[in-house]
Amino acid sequence: MDINIISFDVELMTFIVQIISTLVLFIVIAKFAVKPMQKFLVAREELIAGQFAEAEKTNADAQMALNEAQKEIKIAKFEAEKIIDAAKEEATTKGEAIARQGRVDAELEMKKASEVIKRERQNMLNTTKKEIANITTIATEQLIKKEIDANVHQNLFEEFVTLVGGSNE
Fold first, then answer.
1. pTM for the whole thing?
2. I need a labelling partner for 139 at 20 to 30 A (CA). Which of 51, 68, 106, 163 fits?
């Protein structure tokens, strides 16, 4: 049994040395590795928190810019509609003015044409009357030449001269 006790003592000794080595290792790791690791983790956590806050700020700024852009787009659309409506109204007004002017011009041209037609008609009537008078005169002369002999012609001539001569006196 002695051998078992020694072996137990050796094993107990090995166990105690291992426990002490492990504790020393934990103390060394705690002293030299854990504190720098904690500092690194805290710094990393602060960096991530800062980046997260910056991302939220950037997101808020982007949302504000988006809202502003949407407002500007609405304003631009409204102004474009006003411009289009004004252009339509102006086109309508100009179209109506052109139509009115066209009607006035057409009426003026109709009056001018009517006056020209009246003048031409009057000229034709006057020309026709002159031609009828000439034809009548020629026909009358022909008839008178045939019906009036020289004596009657002489008597008519003398009457005319006395009538005209008496009107001068």
1. 0.41
2. 163
* Token couple for 14: 């090995």
**Residue whose token pair is 């009246």:** 118
Question: Whose structure tokens read 């705690």?
Answer: 30
Instruction: Identify the pLDDT of residue 54.
Output: 93
Which residues 6+ apart lie within 8 Å of 148 measured at CB?
156
Residues 6+ apart with CB under 8 A from 104: none
CB 145 within 8 A of CB 137: no
Question: pLDDT tens, 118-153?
Answer: 999 999 888 887 777 677 676 567 666 656 566 776
Would you give the distance in Å from CA 78 to the centre of its chain? 13
Q: List, for residues 45-82, the tens digit of each pLDDT value.
A: 999 999 999 999 999 999 999 999 999 999 999 999 99
What is d(CA 142, CA 134) in angstroms, rounded to the nearest whole number? Answer: 12
SS3 state of residue 169: coil
**Structure tokens that stand for 46 in this block:** 């602060």
- What's the chain's length in residues? 169
Helix (H) or strand (E) holding 141: helix 35-147
CA R_g for the chain: 67
Burial 49-73 (b: 16+ CB within 10 A, else e): eeeeeeeeeeeeeeeeeeeeeeeee
